[in-house]
Structures
1.
Amino acid sequence: MEVISFQRGQRGPLPLSPDAETGVLDLQVLLRPGRIRSDIDVCCLCLGADGRLGDDRYLVFYNQRCSPEGAVQLQAISSPAQGAHLQVELAKLPAMIERVVVTASIDGAETMQELEHGRLVLSPRGGERCVVHEFHGGEFSGEQALILGELYRRGGGWRFRAVSQGFAGGLPKLLEHFGAEVRDDSVRASSPAAPPPSSAAPPSSTPVVVAEHGETALQRLVDQAAPGSVLHLPRNEYPGPVRVEKPLMIEGNGSTLWSRGGPVLHVRAAGVRLRSLGIEVTGSDDRNDADVALSIAPGCVPELHAVQVRGRVVGLEKETGEWALPGGLSLGTLAPRRRSEYRLALRVPVECRLTSSVSGVRLAPETLRAGENEVTLTVEGVSADTLIAGEIVLHSPHLQRTIGLTGSTVGGEGAALVRGALLWRPPG
Amino acid sequence: MSRTLRATLEDGRTIEYLAEVAGEGSMKTVHFTPDRASVVCFFKEKSATHDPERRRRLQAIVGRYNPTVDPATGAYWRELFCWPTGVVTRPELGVVAPAYAANFFFGSGAFAGKEKQASWFIRPKLRRLIPAEERGSFLSYLQISILVARAVRRMHAAGLAHSDLSNRNVLLDPRGGRAAIIDIDSLVVPQTFPPDVLGTPGYIAPEVLATQHLPVGDARRVLPSRTTDQHALPVLIYEYLLGRHPLRGPRVNSTVSAEEDERLSMGEKSLWIEDPVDHGNRLRGDFVPCTALGPLLAPLFERAFVQGLRAPAQRPGADEWERALVQTTDLLMRCGGAGCAHQWFVYDGSTAPRCPACGWTFRGTLPLLNFYREARPGQYVSERHRLVVRQDQHLYRWHVYSNHFAGENADRTPLGYFTRHEGEWLLVNQNAASMQVVGGDPVLPGTPVVLRDGMQIRLSRETGGRLAVVQMLRV
């Protein structure tokens, strides 16, 4: 094949046979990287009459290897040299494309000065002549990109120019040259998108509006309710204390009324009904009634249904007296799937029924008499790697009281079987 | 000012559009309406105008399969899909669709004004070409992956298949963590409206490529469907999160031509670059493996790109991807490495958390909440999932209750948050009902609890309420 050498800046007609412009041009960029370890990317930009990349689909490079109509196609070469093979069908290029520019850019910190040698070879497929333009790193200094050569329309045909012009800044600078402005990459990025949780909120107080005079929102609702009406509470946790001084039904819907110090709920009127409500003292102080959950004035015994208390009850005859109950019971580590038995003693002032919210836990006897009772707690059929967290519930005639129950079979494969271990007994 | 023309819609209405071609795809030319709020797209193939099947498909897509018209959820889907709003019948067959939102166009840089096609963001090399503020972080791409998986899940649930899922049909806004699926008019309704195209190279399922040479009527020929979407979806997710294609590695499957090599490499000879057994297509040198994406995503990638390449039925569904991606957000840690482009990474369960992008290593105390669900009353079993606690991390309903999921309809009211105060990590209950330390006191709304290693917290005693076991990992 006849080789025609083009020097830097030289321009001339394509060394093509008469039908070459309807055929395929092969453009090879072959690079011996020398000291350049980073990738060297070859791109082809198809520009309009204004010398700009008007349509980014005509930037043919590693991420977009073909122009829309297939006139320009790119295939990278990585061995033994770096570079690319471009296939250009000039006749397929739309009329708006006036120039086809071939570039190379370093994807790293090195510069073209470190390039050992490069060659741009242009030949019509199946032709007998080719154009070769050679260059080497010594021709450049701090540039990271090069315009190697370009095909351009002239006089109804196409011509070629060997360019070998360097650009500092790499591919972004090249794109800036042929397209719109490129922002300075040293500009700090904006704040990253917030994660799915919303941005930080300052520590918030309890989401309850405190009315004037330190009253809680629930107290306000109680005060505003008409005597004899029904106050429906959305299921929630409501800080107390609360005084009820009129006939009223409070439908708690599983809500909890709480306060750090008792009495949490004072009932000071007849005709009060409480339903599906928890009443809890969550802390204590030195006051006498600090541990009182429910305080009932004489003659004001309310009707109670599914009301759970944690704390003392005052003013309800059968509920007063000693309740010697543990705050919680820990079963420790159990052998999974095996039966474990425990003992505990409970002292109650009134007959109570015992249930458990934990599947697999049975209590015997199920009914406690007033006084001290010995109870057997059996756990059976708990799978491996399971945590137990529930309650034992004592159902007295008016109220419910709970004892927390915990345990685990995690790591319990080798645990000894428990037969009658004492869990708890009232002190003294 | 461009000349204004008029098109007629199927319902008899007319719509004005600018004569100037605003853009062009492989199948359609695109024209803006004068207000630029919508685009009118005409099929380039003139025979399409007289194709009753194509018209029926468009009617179905604009009508009964359109999720954006639902009064309750339509607004959400309108942000995620560029769904056609009308069928154009004259002068040619076409569709009217919303113009892409402004956040899906580059605002600056070399591609200012150009669409933010996903292809520009998927590899670190490409991301360097776009302005820094547009590039997003790892978190952005995780959010985007969730949105794309959710969109595909929604399509599949409606009986549709996209058939041409690729980075050319997804617009990304990494800055805002948003995505939009475009080119909806070629959706496939299985057994009703067959696919128009086989897909885009790199995303076409192997079985489609392997049988494309067979005649159209051949029963052995595999056409795009939901199952092939289930190949393209993990390819997209893998690209977004790891910045590389899962099947493009160093192995050469044909020296005849690049096209033949591509066909085999994506088709019958496809081999995952991280295949655990066959390393023939493995990337050389160090690379971030998919195990860095955490214990929820890595197994799905293995199903998709090991079993799923040859046995399409084994591919994870879009719902599985959505769930795993959403739960992976619970495992995120912020990278403290200066200048780290990713800014976030996934906690992989190790005792020495490390950012795979920059190598930054966490030092200090890392609180973890290991989740247990109530399998039987009072009995809690591990969900093999946890929440990595960080400053100002919020606790949401889908954390507190095992029967809630962070889907598009989720209640995003925070129920609590975590904060470090005087050297202690606190969980502050904002609005969770009946939260309690097991064997301890209730954690009432508005009050905090100090996290201690081994502490068990019943996040709620209501149905579905989880139990969380606190683990304080000291690194």
2.
Amino acid sequence: MNQPDIELTPTTVTANREIAKGVYVISYPREDVFVPGQVVAVALSPTDVPRIYSIASGMQEEDISILFDVKPEGTLTPKLARLKPGDTLYVSKPYGSFYGKAEPAYWIAAGTGIAPFVSMFRSGLGKNKTLIHGSRTLEGFFFQNEFLPAMGEHYVRCCSKEKGDGVYEGRLTKYLEEMEHLPDDRKYYLCGSAEMVVDVRDLLVEKGISFNNIIAEIYF
Amino acid sequence: MMEKEKLFGKTLEELTEIAISNGLPKFTGKQLAEWMYQKGAASFEEMTNISKKGRSVLEANYEVGTRQHLKVQTSADGTKKYLFPSAEGHFIESAYIPENNRNTLCISSQVGCKMGCLFCATGKQGFQANLTAGEIVNQVVSLPERENLTNLVFMGMGEPLDNPENLLKALEILTSDWGVGMSPRRITVSTIGILPAMKDFLDKSSCHFALSIHTPFEEERRRLMPIENVYPLPEVMDLIKQYDWSHQRRISFEYIMFKGINDTRRHVNELVRILHGLRCRINLMRFHPVPATPLEGSDEETLEDFKNTLNAKGITATIRASRGLDIDAACGLLSTKELLKEREKDY
């Protein structure tokens, strides 16, 4: 299960929903077992260079879903956004080792980096977790309608550009900086852009967290 | 005024097409390549074996597009660190390392880097842009010490296999007879192991290959290098072992020694196990401290012992000299973070 099978096989799109402006969740039938946190490689033809996306659905769901935002200058995402149910998509088997576990931990994400944590949460791993999600806008707190009722105060939204009820005003790094104490016996799972991961990792280390307890998935 | 298209960084085929499409003789393409890549011409005016009319036509529509370095710092040990401009107001660094029997240029392939390796300064600035093939080759052709250059290593800023198209194009220009004309045996491309691009590179190029391994244990590598989550070491090694390393093309492994982390006998034994049967060498490297990084370098005695133990167990290991430390040119220290314009965070 930890083997990156970069062989792509065709599958059929079952749904493609725009959940926020330019942000989509595309789904296809689940043929393989996966560990929450794993990724799949996706392309529009078997010979294209695939892009890697975290699975954003639970282990038990019938479909595998992935979360993506459209990059106007990109070669894949504008076309991916136009796919409809019944269209063909080429996908790899799930792989990767950014595994969700049952132990208490912090999940820290920015933007679409929330995807692996959606998978972990929907797979029943959210009980003893604190999720800190950073977004520039209020629209960027994808899946908040699932996290809020279940996680309550253990779900923290940090918005760098807009104000909202119950939303921390400021970047997630500012939120972390202001935390008086971060337990150093917990694992910290980070997912997002390289910039966010490096900034948060540096901050956690400054606050005394061992780098052995920091597990990062960078969206590159 | 619209920016003119740059010719530096184009292949012979592209230059020939441009010559023909501008009404020039087909062989003008080869002349352009020789002038730019071999003679270092920075303007069409210098290209005296192209007709005046031809030069006017080229001048009207194109520019050569080479860039001189903006700054040079010289280390007490003779290493030089060059600062080059790149597109959109960015900057990159290269390091020229003179030695007794060879002179090596360490070049960059990206502005910044996405990979977020814990021990590298380049990662701290995030990723700004891929270098074009022209910007990659420019570091070589514009080097003041170009005539003395013997070796080239892609170990500067960026992950070369995260910019595979420009990397392969640059290598074509660097190794072709019509281009810079370097032997592929004098060029080493170093990567942390981006699998699909790695396969493509190994299939298409005969340059030497270096893998930044830094530990043989997956869980540990995951902490040091997030790429391990996506392209784990066993898969990278499986791919490496599919290729023949017994002839001219060599493979090496880069291993920064971190105190109390990857410098134990257990690590030696695991390295021996995973490299078994592979004709290779390991370059052990001193860790050059990077701000806000919770790592320390192993002491000299540990480095020597590690090296000797590997050698005794049949794995060729050497300790790489740290060059240019006083000017932040040593491994892991290249960065143009301070020159980045104030920009919005992407989160």
